[in-house]
Design goal:
It is a single chain. By secondary structure, this protein is of the alpha+beta class. It has 15 helices and 16 strands. The strands form four sheets. Strands 1, 2, 6, 7, 10, 11, 12, 13 and 14 form a nine-stranded mixed beta sheet that branches. Strands 5-4-15 form a three-stranded antiparallel beta sheet, with no helix packed on it. The protein has a two-stranded antiparallel sheet with strand order 3-16. Helix 5 packs antiparallel against helix 6 and helix 9 runs antiparallel to helix 10.
Length: 495
C-alpha cells in the first residue's frame, strides 16, 4: 500500500486532502433505462423522448435488461459483489429538467456492492475501494444560451441509463484521482459498458473533497458536481483543497455544500447546500418489481467478459517479453490493445515467426513511430491512415533486409501521407536496400579519398570516428546501403 506524499502547505501545518469520486457512466444501450427511446448522441432537441420520459399520466416504466447486464458485467470486471436481489427507489426533488418530479435510482439495495480498482502513480501502485455501483436514470438538460430571457429544456437525455460508480474516500492526491478515473474509464471501455466519452457527457464525475491534518478524523466535505475531464478533476481538487485549508486557517469552518467548477477561471464556486438522503424522501418505486438475477444470467455475464487491462498487461510482459512500460502504454486503451494485437498477428504471419519473436519490434514501432505520427496529425489510433496489415508489411520488409531503418522511416512517412501499402511505395520509388558490395566499396573509397585527415586520425586510435564514416557512406548511397555490409567493408578498408 502506497502512502501518498501529497500535502497542502498551510501557514503552520501540513494538510492532507481526502478524495472520493462518484462517477456517472452512461450505459452502452440503444434504448433508455425504462423506455424504448433512442440514446444516440447529437440528435435535435426533444426528438428522442417517449411518453414515459416525458412523464405522461399513466405511463409505466419497463426495465431495460441490457442495462442490467452491463452493470453486472462492470461489477464483475472490478471483482465486486453482485447482488442477486436489488430494488429501485424514487429520489424526490423538483427541477425543470425532471418531468416526473423524481429520479428512479437505487439507494438502499444497489445492483453491485463493494469492489476495488488498482491504480498506478509515480509513487507506486494503490488499491482504491469501490463502495457500490447502482443504476439510475439521467435527467434532461437545461439550455440557457438560446434566448436572453428564457431557458429551454431538452429531454433527449431524460431517462438515459447511468451507472453511478461510488468510490471510497481512499484517494489522497489529484494524481491518484486522475489515475483512478483513467483506469476506470479503461475498464468500462474494455468491457463495453460505457464509451467513456467525457467531452460528450457520457462519463462525468462528482468530486468529494475534504482536508484534515494527517492522522485526524475526516473533515467536512464539499461535492463538486459534473466535472467532465480528468484534467478538470485534478484542477478542481487542487483549488478546492487550498480553499478549504485557507478557510480553516483563517478561523472559518468548511460548510458541507455542493459546488461547481469553472474551468475558465480554474476555481470552484458555491451552488447550494448539500442535501442528505432524507431531504429527497426516498422510498421504493411502486411501479417496478425488485430485480432478481438467476445463476444462469450471472454465468453468461461472467463468460462474456473480455481480457481486462491488468491481465492483458501481465500477459504482454510474461508471454511476449515486452517491458512493463510498453505493456502499460499498449493496454491503457482498449482500441490501442486491439490495434497492437492485429499488428502482432499480421507480423507473425508475414514473417513466418511466432508472435513472441516479433512482439518487441511491433511494440516499439507502434509506440515510437506510429504514435508520434498520430500525435503530430492530431489523430487517434482508430483514425490511423496506416492499417495493422500495412504496418506489419513494413516491419516484414525491415526484417527480411529489403529496407534499412532509415529507408523504413522514409517509406512510413509516405504511408502516413498517402495510405499506400509499403511494397508499392518501395517498388515505385526504388527504395530497396542494397547489399551490392561493389557499389558500397566504391562509395567507401570515395569517402576515404575525400577525408584523408579523418582516416589518419581513425588509424591513430580515434575509434569514435567510425560512426562518421558510416554516416558519410550511407549519405553517398542515399540511405540504401545495407548497414551491416557497410560496417563490415568499412572495418576492412580502414584496417
Amino acid at each position: 500500500m502506497v502512502v501518498s506524499k501529497y500535502r497542502i502547505q498551510g501557514a503552520s501545518d501540513d494538510w492532507e486532502v481526502v478524495i472520493g469520486l462518484e462517477v456517472h457512466a452512461q450505459v452502452t444501450s440503444n434504448a433508455k433505462l425504462f423506455s424504448g427511446a433512442s440514446t444516440e448522441f447529437g440528435a435535435e432537441p426533444n426528438t428522442q423522448v417517449s411518453l414515459v420520459d416525458a412523464a405522461m399520466p399513466g405511463m409505466l416504466p419497463v426495465l431495460n435488461g441490457e442495462c442490467v447486464r452491463q452493470a453486472v458485467r462492470t461489477g464483475m470486471a472490478i471483482e465486486a459483489r453482485i447482488n442477486a436481489w436489488s430494488r429501485f427507489d424514487r429520489k424526490n426533488y423538483f427541477y425543470a429538467d425532471l418531468p416526473q418530479g423524481y429520479q428512479i435510482s437505487q439507494l438502499y439495495h444497489p445492483i453491485v456492492g463493494e469492489g476495488a480498482i488498482e491504480i498506478e502513480t509515480e509513487e507506486g501502485s494503490k488499491t482504491v475501494g469501490v463502495e457500490r455501483i447502482h443504476l439510475e436514470q439521467d435527467a434532461g438538460k437545461l439550455m440557457h444560451d438560446q434566448h436572453p430571457n428564457f431557458s429551454y429544456v431538452d429531454l433527449n437525455r431524460s431517462g438515459v441509463a447511468l451507472m453511478e460508480i461510488v468510490s471510497k474516500p481512499d484517494m489522497r492526491s489529484p494524481d491518484e484521482a486522475g489515475a483512478y478515473v483513467r483506469k476506470l474509464r479503461a475498464i468500462l471501455r474494455y468491457v463495453g459498458s460505457c464509451d467513456g466519452n467525457m467531452e460528450q457527457g457520457s462519463m462525468r464525475a462528482d468530486v468529494n473533497v475534504s482536508v484534515r491534518r494527517p492522522g485526524d478524523s475526516l473533515g467536512t466535505r464539499c461535492e463538486i458536481k459534473n466535472v467532465n475531464s480528468v484534467r478538470f478533476i485534478q484542477q478542481a481538487i487542487e483549488y478546492e483543497a487550498r480553499r478549504q485549508v485557507d478557510l480553516i486557517e483563517e478561523g472559518g469552518a468548511v460548510v458541507q455544500e455542493t459546488r461547481l467548477f469553472d474551468p475558465d477561471k480554474g476555481e470552484t464556486r458555491s451552488l447550494r447546500s448539500k442535501e442528505d438522503a432524507h431531504d429527497y424522501r426516498y422510498f421504493p418505486d411502486p411501479d417496478l418489481l425488485p430485480v432478481e438475477l438467476s445463476t444462469a444470467f450471472l454465468d453468461e455475464c461472467r463468460h462474456s467478459l473480455p481480457e481486462l487491462p491488468d491481465a492483458k498487461r501481465l500477459r504482454y510482459v510474461e508471454q511476449l517479453g515486452l517491458s512493463a512500460y510498453n505493456a502499460s502504454v499498449l493496454t491503457a486503451e482498449a482500441e490501442t490493445a486491439r490495434w497492437f494485437e492485429a499488428l502482432l498477428a499480421e507480423s507473425a504471419l508475414k514473417q513466418q515467426k511466432p508472435e513472441t519473436q516479433v512482439a518487441k519490434a511491433a511494440a516499439n514501432w507502434l509506440i515510437s513511430d506510429l504514435f508520434g505520427a498520430l500525435n503530430r496529425l492530431g489523430k487517434t489510433i482508430e483514425q490511423s491512415p496506416v492499417s495493422p496489415a500495412h504496418g506489419a508489411e513494413l516491419l516484414a520488409l525491415v526484417a527480411n533486409g529489403t529496407l534499412s531503418g532509415t529507408l523504413a522511416k522514409q517509406v512510413f512517412e509516405i504511408m502516413i501521407e498517402s495510405g499506400e501499402d509499403p511494397a508499392s511505395i518501395v517498388a515505385a520509388r526504388g527504395l530497396q536496400q542494397t547489399s551490392d558490395t561493389g557499389a558500397i566499396e566504391a562509395a567507401i573509397a570515395d569517402v576515404m579519398t575525400s577525408n584523408p585527415d579523418k582516416v589518419a586520425e581513425y588509424r591513430s586510435g580515434k575509434d569514435k570516428l567510425f560512426g562518421f564514416f558510416v554516416g558519410q557512406v550511407m549519405r553517398a548511397m542515399a540511405g540504401k546501403a545495407n548497414p551491416q555490409v557497410v560496417n563490415e567493408l568499412l572495418k576492412k578498408a580502414l584496417g
